[in-house]
Write a structure and sequence with these properties.
GO cellular component, one term: plasma membrane
Strand content: under 5%
Number of domains: 1
CATH superfamily: MetI-like
Organism: Tumebacillus flagellatus
Number of helices: 13
CATH architecture: Orthogonal Bundle
Radius of gyration: 23 Å
Structural class: mainly alpha
Oligomer: single chain
Number of strands: 0
Keywords: Cell membrane, Membrane, Transmembrane, Transmembrane helix, Transport
CATH topology: MetI-like fold
InterPro entries: MetI-like, MetI-like_sf
Protein name: ABC transporter permease
Amino acid sequence: MKKLWRTLFYCVVIGYAVLTLIPFAWSILTSMKSTPDMDKFWVPLSSLTLDNYTYIVTKFPFFRWLLNSVIVAGSVTIGNLLFNTLAGYALARIKFPGRGLLFYIVLAVMMVPGQVVMIPVYIMLANWGWINTYQGFILPFLTSSFGIFMMRQFFLALPVDLEEAALIDGLSRWGIFFRIALPLAKPALAAQTIFMFLGNWNSFMWPSLLASSDDMFTLPVGLNSFHWQYVAYWNQDLAGTMFMTIPMLIVFLIFQKWFIKGIATSGLK
């Protein structure tokens, strides 16, 4: 009976995996179809072509868009890893006046939709002359209330005895952070890396608002160029989407073990 239930479980899981892979496989096939065959459900394998990929690379500033996405997503991810980790550790371990109030402010910011602050932030960036610049894409997003909360919860779960022993041995607060707390925080850092990189890599709304020239487009904004008023070239659009998917898969495959562990141990079950 136990083997029967296990077999049934694996059948359900495999069936669900196949269902989730069908849209991805359809996207790959559509990205290799010619424009006349774009609306056809099935085409011979011999008619599939890589012309859509070549068209994107040669007819559009694709590599510029790719570079912009790498710079923006990479910089924002590194900034969040730095500032969120420092803030989370301070809220978890350092006792200072107003610590509780600051934590409640972080929680309150998590509840505010991003659309609420969109206009004030845009006006502020415009007054500073940061529209269509890298600093406008990066600096307002170097911290995240969710990242601060996640790191605080993780540090609270670490045994404080390790840090107290190190403090007795004469290690400074910075030494405790870099030599003890930070190495133990690899699961949370990996989870935060995936969240921040994928979120900013796929970001469309803010880059589309802040970018006013082709040379500052990120990949999501640039790929939107394939959508015209009355027609959309989905084969070319999906070819660009495949280009976007590769870095996300690489990042997730590198950090997936730590990502799963971080979710399980950071108070976000």
